Amino acid sequence: MSPAQQDPGQAGPSVRARAWRRFARNPLSLVGVAVLLALVLFSFAGPLVYRAHPLTVNLFHTMQPPGGAYPLGTDSLGRDNLARLMWGGQTSLEVGFAAAALSMLIGVLYGTVSGLAGGAVDTVMMRTVDILLSLPSLFILLFLDATFQPSLVLLVVILAVLGWMGVARLVRAEILSLRARDFIEAQRAAGATTWRIMRHGLLPNVLGRVVVAGTFSVADSILTIAILSFLGLGLPPPAPNWGAMLSDSQNDIFQNAWWLIYPPGAAILLAELSVNFIGDGLSGIFHSAAR
What we know:
mainly alpha, 71% helix
């Protein structure tokens, strides 16, 4: 019997407790959770406390260093840098998590169908994935982003369409492994339909690895949107995001305007590290459970 088929009233709490203990024993995972929560609160709850608008231009207070009415100074247009950092975090985190969720959904569905179908269907589907993985994703991303009018939804869709192949291969491999397990054979012998086997036998046992892959996908999406924005191919101005703020600060790098460079760079770095630390912790949980 698989972990997903055990009595949740007896095994469930102990399994969750052991998983949490494994996660809590990894200090970097806990640091990752704390930092990610801090970034989320800073980006989404911060603007409720700090009321400055990120798009307000004040040409009388341009390039002000941190202090007084501007805790993180102002840029070359007199816009409040702290407000832009908060609102930019919303865009970066929303795109990162939404793109990861959509790519996970596509990858899980595709990999499950491929693994269950088997035979020629599986071969064709996996060769299609191999072909797509061989294409240079960055150039495709740049081409699509430059061809169409950039928007939040478009960026999410593009990142998801270019990021689901690895998840599909992972899910397909897990499905092929699980198909031969005794508890799946028992469900077939009991007359369970393919949909029921997939929903109650296969997907619950694949979910752990998908969650781990999803955390790393979030980090990749946040970094990709930062790179695109830095290259001037992200969301059109004046919409703030961390990558665009770094790009804008290039013009001021020789004016010792450190408050325009380090805060968005540190935010991107902290977001990347926190999500990767969480992914490492989750990966340790599921690897221990597999053993």
